[in-house]
Amino acid sequence: MSAAEIIELIKKLPPEERAEVNDYLNRSHVAQPDIGGQFATDADFDRAAKQVFADNHDLLRRLAQ
């Protein structure tokens, strides 16, 4: 079953059951790592930037042309 089919089934649920699905999704959501407050440190930013450039090297090279 595709995600689109599941979404359509969820839309057809009564409000109580939709709320139950929503609660499940909220509980099962993977928590984002705590970066120690509202702002990232310089080290956090540098680490993330290096990862973005490494993961998207070919795309960034093509955009620079």
Key attributes of the depicted protein:
65 residues; mainly alpha; 4 helices; 69% helix; 0% strand; flat
Q: What's the mean pLDDT score?
A: 85
- Catalogue the unreliable spans: none
Radius of gyration in whole Å, from Cα? 20 Å
* Separation, N- and C-terminal Cα atoms: 42 Å
What is the overall shape?
Answer: flat
Major sheet: none
Quickly count the helices: 4
- Please write the string of helix (H) and strand (E) elements: HHHH
* Fraction in helix: 55-70%
Q: How many strands?
A: 0
Give a description of the structure.
Helix content is 69%, strand content 0%. With 65 residues, the protein is mainly alpha-helical.
Short structural summary:
The chain has four helices and no strands. It has 65 residues and is mainly α.
